[in-house]
Amino acid sequence: MTTPVVSIAYHSGFGHTAVLAEAVRAGAADAGAEVHLIKVDEITDAQWETLDRSDAIVFGSPTYMGTASGAFHVFAETTSQRWFGRAWQDKLAAGFTNSASKSGDKLHTLQFFQTLAAQHGMHWVNLGLLPGWNSSTASENDLNRLGFFAGAAAQSNNDQGPEGVHKADIATAEHLGRRVAQTAKIFAVGRAAA
Q1: Which residues form the Flavodoxin-like domain (predicted)?
Q2: pTM (global) more than 0.90
Q3: How far apart are CA 5 and CA 103, in angstroms?
Q4: What residues form DSSP beta bridges with 64?
Q5: pLDDT tens by residue, 21-76
């Protein structure tokens, strides 16, 4: 079986989202993927080629003003060159985001990623977890403590740096990375059998 290639295309304004990107990377690598971290505001021609050869692309951005960051939007618009040629057709996609508020309209950022992936003809990989921290016996340390289904969502206090990213949110991002890599392996087997 070939090793799936997973790329994490992300922007991080203050370092919190970079912590999550690293967690997604660790989870995907733990599941046996070749993983590449790509900062979209510093992307090179070689990194565009890496995205083109990836089996899965995980999008990541902080949620600013109810959507992905401006830097991520610039990247998304630049992908239109890939859209015209259907370069990312049938790749897997997933997403993660962070904001200071528990909600912070993070769902809109994840939906923006889903729409971007759909326009490229990609297949969305959801978080695959039930919500945590939603009963009297639950804990803020549960996986998916914020209760998102579309992707991994994190909350980081606005008066703390990257060291303040919640450990449960890091573990949730690692889970997403593992899930994407495992799904990429399944897709590879299916393609080989077809």
Answers
A1: 6-154
A2: yes
A3: 31
A4: 67
A5: 999 999 999 999 999 999 999 999 999 999 999 999 999 999 999 999 999 999 99
